[in-house]
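hiii so um. not sure if this is the right channel but i have a protein structure encoded as tokens and i wanna go backwards to a sequence. like what aa goes where. can anyone help
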């Protein structure tokens, strides 16, 4: 939850500093201290990235969501820049966990 929240903050601010300062600083050490494998955490973040980008680009499908799939009405348009920015923030998190 905290990762998704701070990626959202970074998107709203258009700046990764809030993500770096408040979330990524010590994130790997925190998960290690809790005994959470880094590979599992990185995989979970990769899944969050895929879902978020699919929602931004309006390419989410029933196959991706399974029984929880819900198609939201969105404004049509080119959101590729926003999707790329979002993906970059998630990549930053994955890199910090490695």
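sure thing!! here u go:
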């Amino acid at each position: 939850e905290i990762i998704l929240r701070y990626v959202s903050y970074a998107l709203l601010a258009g700046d990764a500093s809030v993500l770096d300062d408040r979330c990524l600083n010590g994130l790997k050490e925190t998960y290690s201290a809790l005994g959470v494998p880094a590979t599992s955490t990185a995989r979970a973040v990769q899944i969050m990235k895929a879902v978020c980008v699919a929602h931004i680009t309006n390419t989410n499908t029933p196959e991706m969501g399974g029984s929880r799939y819900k198609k939201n009405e969105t404004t049509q348009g080119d959101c590729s820049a926003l999707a790329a920015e979002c993906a970059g923030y998630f990549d930053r998190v994955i890199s910090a966990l490695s």
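oh and The chain has a mean pLDDT of 88.
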